[in-house]
């Protein structure tokens, strides 16, 4: 009798692995979840859990971490006490067996900087794997699986945001419609990441992300990140390092003032930018003082003020997402001509004066682009003041 049972168990394992292999070969999370639900409806939740575990392992071993995480989340729903597969994936992907010390954390961020920006998933996955095994498992537990159909926005421009997303499967369009910015044709593919600035500060979403195909995503909220960071502080540091690197890399690729730089030069310069959060009302530059760096506004809104001799503040053109400022003082080596104050909480990239001098002095094309920007800004200010 026991032999028959053993043979039945062995046959079941073979069937489960074969089914998992067939599903994995299709490479589709939505199809996998449909198959698992069918098993559940047939009254075989145990078999569904076994197939789910096999799928998670297959995808993890096949360098498809995000899909493996989706399977882990479904496995936790099928079997709430299951931890074996999460541990297996953490052992496979987490770079560190134990949480690094504070000094070790600096080395982790240095390692993060070495990653190349050309492929989205080369950066997104290390957001998980630049961690200890325990922190990795905690982050895996914190993300939630989301499903979106075509035409249902994941995030909406102007709405308050408090989470970031990983696109596991599908494709989405990134639309910018407010403030006359138009709707540039950008898209996010599998392995892409968006919304990460919402983990750093309050503020409105800077774009609408609309799925163009049925999509599966993982969502990480600021609340869950804060909760994890209480036990694993390095998680928050890695997220901040990820946001800084991603923003700086994108800046190097897309902003016109850096178009003259070669790829290696962009990569070198991007590492010099510091990510800064700023509260409303804080002065980033003060008229009459020497500027301390070049700023790029990632999130929020700032207003420059020309200060008259009688102390009256005259507002100039508002600075918005993507705007650069601080270049005039750096280029002319003179005090700042206008005070720049944050109107709302925001996030910026800052290139310090020493880093600016170290890089800009050797890049005539970049200096010319900044000089043109500074000249246009000075002329615009002069016209505005002359009309008062």
Automatic annotation (TrEMBL):
<dbReference type="InterPro" id="IPR000595">
    <property type="entry name" value="cNMP-bd_dom"/>
</dbReference>
<dbReference type="InterPro" id="IPR050397">
    <property type="entry name" value="Env_Response_Regulators"/>
</dbReference>
<protein>
    <recommendedName>
        <fullName>Cyclic nucleotide-binding domain-containing protein</fullName>
    </recommendedName>
</protein>
<dbReference type="GO" id="GO:0003700">
    <property type="term" value="F:DNA-binding transcription factor activity"/>
</dbReference>
<feature type="domain" description="Cyclic nucleotide-binding">
    <location>
        <begin position="257"/>
        <end position="358"/>
    </location>
</feature>
<dbReference type="Pfam" id="PF00027">
    <property type="entry name" value="cNMP_binding"/>
</dbReference>
<dbReference type="InterPro" id="IPR018490">
    <property type="entry name" value="cNMP-bd_dom_sf"/>
</dbReference>
<dbReference type="GO" id="GO:0005829">
    <property type="term" value="C:cytosol"/>
</dbReference>
<dbReference type="InterPro" id="IPR018488">
    <property type="entry name" value="cNMP-bd_CS"/>
</dbReference>
<dbReference type="InterPro" id="IPR014710">
    <property type="entry name" value="RmlC-like_jellyroll"/>
</dbReference>
<feature type="domain" description="Cyclic nucleotide-binding">
    <location>
        <begin position="127"/>
        <end position="228"/>
    </location>
</feature>
